[in-house]
Design brief:
This protein is α/β, with parallel strands linked by helices. It has helices at about 25-30, 35-45, 45-55, 70-75, 100-105, 105-120, 135-150, 180-190, 215-230, 230-235, 270-275, 310-315, 335-350, 355-375, 385-395, 405-425, and strands spanning about 85-90, 125-130, 165-170, 210-215, 245-255, 260-265, 285-290, 300, 325-330. It folds into 3 domains: about 15-235, NADH-ubiquinone oxidoreductase 51kDa subunit (Rossmann fold); about 250-330, Ubiquitin-like (UB roll); about 335-425, NADH-ubiquinone oxidoreductase 51kDa subunit, iron-sulphur binding domain (de novo design (two linked rop proteins)). The strands form 2 sheets. The chain has a 5-stranded mixed β-sheet with strand order 6-5-9-7-8, with no helix packed on it. Helix 3 (about 45-55) packs across helix 6, helix 13 runs antiparallel to helix 14 and helix 14 (about 355-375) packs antiparallel against helix 15 (about 385-395). About 55% of the residues are buried. Bound molecules: flavin mononucleotide and iron/sulfur cluster.
């Protein structure tokens, strides 16, 4: 499937990236019409009107699941309890680095989005949970928050209204599982970062047992653009019915021009992104595989990339868009070693609550380890390959959170699409260690 080339796209974030001075409040006010929408929303719109606009925009969550934002906010009950908007800045899915760009260069878009979202759900204290490794970004974000407090955009009587809103940054300590929304909430509360049993969902009982919306950085930073353009116009930036606006894509691996790119949702195929934006596969080599949505996404082989890059088209070909992190593998990539690396990550990051995930990930790592490192001493066996698929099949869909699926999907898809490479290893035919992975 191909998408008409040169479809005009309005880029919301990308033109403001890369220049340090752009993160300052003056820039946001002068060049991005900053905080005008927050003022308008607080003074002229009811919470339901804000939610309706976001629904019209077809703004899907950018954190991985693609859940409609307006709908998520409408689930927050109008009860007499504190409500929380918690921003997921954990950005822990391997390959993903788009939220970092927003925090570095357009932090005020995130803060304005928090003001608008807080009005929509009745939140007076919002938390930003940021991954521990983003020490510099946490500092930059705090500077932007301080600027907003100093101008009266945060705190009491914000923007000259009766509203109160505080924002607190909470730094994580390096656990992937704290990106999962309920693991995040436990960690925020000072508990172990272990996912919770759902239901109850965070909308009903989230942070401190109160109604909570957990949203990704990009999702919330996009909201001021929705309000500026109007939901209908924003929706039209997307070329797929259910996906409005633009998407920030983290493109990495064996391409000539890796980076964070912004495209209209569903406006390009995976091939167009790799070739037109990424400048094609590096060093004049051929494409071997693409992991299209962060390391959790099942792998696609080189002949499967003529697919529109958005949620449903990718689901149709058996993979997912996830956090929109595309990782490109050239024809020298050792897929067996790459899978070992990915599986090692999930085994390490499993929180250990569910038996299939805790035990299964460890076993998959051990088996892959002996396939890669002991092909010549009889420890690796041909039956290991099917055993891997069997173990993965017993993890997917049987765990408390989606980390189990994230670990199983790559194993199943790598073996399905690159089985001869696994067979060559167990036969002891892989003489030369290939560099990548
Ligand atoms: C293991 C795991 C890790 C996750 N990591 C992140 C993350 O780093 N950032 C993020 O925004 N969402 C992450 N998610 C998704 C969140 O649980 C949640 O769906 C998201 O924050 C909701 O925001 P959105 O609706 O704006 O997309 C993760 C999910 C799982 C299962
Ligand atoms: S699936 Fe894995 S990471 Fe998720 S709760 Fe279970 S053991 Fe923890």
């Amino acid at each position: 499937m191909s998408v008409e080339a040169n479809t005009p796209v309005t880029k919301l974030f990308e033109p403001h990236f890369w220049k340090d001075s752009n993160r300052k409040l003056e820039y946001y006010l002068d060049k991005m019409d900053g905080y005008k929408m927050a003022k308008k929303v607080l003074t002229e719109m009811t919470p339901d009107q804000v939610i309706d606009e976001v629904k019209k925009a077809n703004l899907r969550g950018r954190g991985g699941a693609g859940f409609p934002m307006g709908m998520k906010w409408s689930f927050i009950p109008k009860v007499d309890k504190p409500k929380y908007l918690v921003i997921n800045a954990d950005e822990s899915e391997p390959g993903t680095c788009k939220d970092r760009q927003i925090i570095r260069y357009t932090p005020h878009a995130l803060i304005e989005g928090i003001i608008i979202g807080s009005h929509a759900i009745g939140c007076k204290h919002s938390y930003i949970y940021i991954r521990g490794e983003y020490a510099r970004e946490a500092k930059l974000l705090q500077e932007a928050i301080d600027e907003a407090y100093a101008k009266g955009y945060l705190g009491q009587n914000i923007l000259g209204t009766q509203n109160t809103l505080d924002i607190t940054i909470h730094r994580g300590a390096g656990a992937y599982i704290c990106g999962e929304e309920t693991g995040l909430l436990n960690s925020l509360e000072g508990k172990r970062g272990e996912p919770r049993v759902k239901p109850p969902f965070p909308a009903v009982s989230g942070a401190f047992a109160c109604p909570t919306a957990v949203n990704n950085v990009e999702s919330v930073a996009t909201v001021p653009f929705v309000m500026r353009m109007g939901g209908d116009n924003f929706a039209k930036l997307g070329k797929i019915d259910k996906s409005g606006g633009t998407r920030l894509i983290s493109l990495s691996g064996h391409v000539n021009k890796p980076g964070v790119y912004e495209i209209g949702a569903g406006s390009m195929t995976l091939r167009q992104i790799i070739e037109d934006l990424g400048g094609g596969v590096w060093k004049g080599r051929k494409l071997k595989a693409v992991v299209p949505g962060g390391s959790s996404a099942p792998v696609l082989s080189a002949d499967e990339i003529d697919v529109v890059y958005d949620v449903e088209p990718l689901q149709k070909v058996g993979t997912m868009m996830g956090s929109a992190a595309i990782m490109v593998c050239d024809d020298t990539t050792d897929m067996v070693k790459l899978l070992l690396r990915v599986t090692k990550f999930y085994a390490h990051e499993s929180c250990g609550q569910c038996t299939p995930c805790r035990e299964g990930c460890q076993w998959m790592e051990s088996i892959l380890h002996r396939i890669v490192h002991h092909p010549h001493d009889g420890k690796a066996k041909p039956s290991d390959i099917d055993m891997l698929t069997d173990i993965a099949g017993n993890i997917g869909g049987k765990t408390l959170c989606a980390l189990g699926d994230a670990a199983a999907g790559p194993v199943i898809s790598f073996i399905k699409k690159f089985r001869p490479e696994f067979e060559a290893y167990v036969r002891g035919d892989v003489k030369e260690r290939v560099r990548h992975a």
